[in-house]
UniProtKB/TrEMBL annotation:
InterPro entries hit by this protein: Integrase_cat-core (IPR001584), Integrase_p58-like_C (IPR054465), Retrovirus_Pol_polyprotein (IPR050951), RNaseH-like_sf (IPR012337), RNaseH_sf (IPR036397)
Protein name, entry field: Transposon Ty3-I Gag-Pol poly
Short name of any one Pfam family annotated for the protein: Integrase_p58_C
GO molecular function: nucleic acid binding
Superkingdom of this protein's organism: Eukaryota
Organism lineage: Eukaryota, Metazoa, Cnidaria, Anthozoa, Octocorallia
Transmembrane portions of the chain: none
Start and end residues of each Integrase catalytic domain: 1-75
Gene Ontology biological-process entries: DNA integration
SUPFAM superfamilies, alphabetized: Ribonuclease H-like (SSF53098)
Length: 327
């Protein structure tokens, strides 16, 4: 490794952020094993070395070379290639070790240089594709922002925190924000982890005094009546005089006499008549069927009250069709 100028970078365990290329290869290898298992089923473990060989001998799109070429400086010498060299190459003269190492380093250096150029070109293309749907945003020193930091151990609980102040702009993509409520007082964040904080406008609601309208006791009593489907004929009949003030006295007496004569027609509970009948045509509508569900106590009490009211009606009858309600 020293002769070839290879540097090894160590990383913390279980820290995939520093091993992006390796983690990406793990995903590719898992996909290859998954496809291989569909064909071989239980004997998939016997072909792992073949999958690795295929991955090492495949041209990497962004580099333009196979991993084997970048590590060993030449293509893989497969069985057919070894046979070809044995049959066609007649030069059996020993190779000078110094010349071999020199040629090997030159070839490997050229391959690495070309791979870097191809990688830069591929990264540029990927950036252009990503930036097509990206809205660039920038912040100034002193702006208030919301940050989206990772939550260790509970990724599903991640949310925006803040607001925080922007202290410094490192470059177009990185900003230093002040985080007094976190372990680090200052934190470097990528622009994708930030969004502007818009303060809510302070709105002062209008203040008004209560209504000074003078209402009589009877009007207040009517206002306090609960909304219900039941009739209140008896209450109105007891206050018939207050309802007929717009008529002359003779007309009031005539109406009161007629109402007293036929008082059985104005009960609080509706009754039936045999003078006329009608049918309710619902057209092509079909009954709505619904599974039973729970009600909260307040609604349950109101429902029970209405059911008791229907059961107490003298005109209740069994429904002729199998739909609800059966009254």
């Amino acid at each position: 490794m020293q002769e070839l100028g290879i540097k090894q970078f160590r990383s913390s365990a279980y820290h995939p952020e520093s091993q992006g290329a390796l983690e990406r290869f793990h995903q590719t290898l898992k996909n290859m094993i998954r496809m291989y298992c569909q064909d071989t089923e239980k004997s998939w473990d016997e072909g792992i070395h073949l999958l690795l060989f295929a991955a090492h001998d495949s041209v990497q799109e962004s580099l333009g070379f196979t991993p084997f070429e970048l590590v060993f400086g030449h293509t893989v010498r497969e069985l057919l290639k070894l046979l070809k060299e044995k049959l066609l190459v007649d030069d059996d003269s020993p190779l000078n070790l110094l010349e071999y190492v020199s040629d090997f380093r030159t070839q490997l250096t050229k391959a690495c240089d070309l791979a870097r150029e191809n990688l830069k070109s591929a990264q540029k293309c990927m950036k252009e594709k990503y930036d097509k749907t990206t809205v660039m945003q920038s912040f100034q020193t002193g702006d208030k922002v919301l940050a989206f930091p990772p939550v260790p151990g509970t990724p599903l609980h991640a949310r925006y925190f803040g607001p925080y102040l922007v202290e410094k702009k490192e470059n177009d993509l990185n900003y230093v924000i002040v985080t007094p409520d976190r372990r680090k007082n200052k934190q470097l964040c990528h622009v994708n982890m930030l969004k502007p904080y818009h303060e809510r406008k302070k709105v002062i609601n209008a203040v008004s005094s209560g209504s000074n309208d003078n209402h009589t006791a009877e009007e207040l009593e009517l206002f306090n009546l609960s909304e219900t489907t039941k009739l209140s004929n008896s209450h109105i009949l007891r206050q018939m005089d207050s309802k007929l003030t717009h008529l002359e006295q003779s007309q009031q007496d005539d109406i009161q006499e007629r109402v007293q004569e036929y008082s059985d027609l104005f009960p609080d509970v509706p009754t039936r008549t045999t003078m006329i009948s009608h049918d309710v045509d619902v057209g092509d509508a079909v009954p709505v069927k619904q599974h039973p569900y729970r009600l909260n106590p307040s609604k349950q009490e109101s429902l029970n009250k209405e059911v008791r009211y229907l059961l107490e009606r003298p005109d209740r009858a069994q429904s002729a069709v199998g739909v609800h309600p059966a009254f």
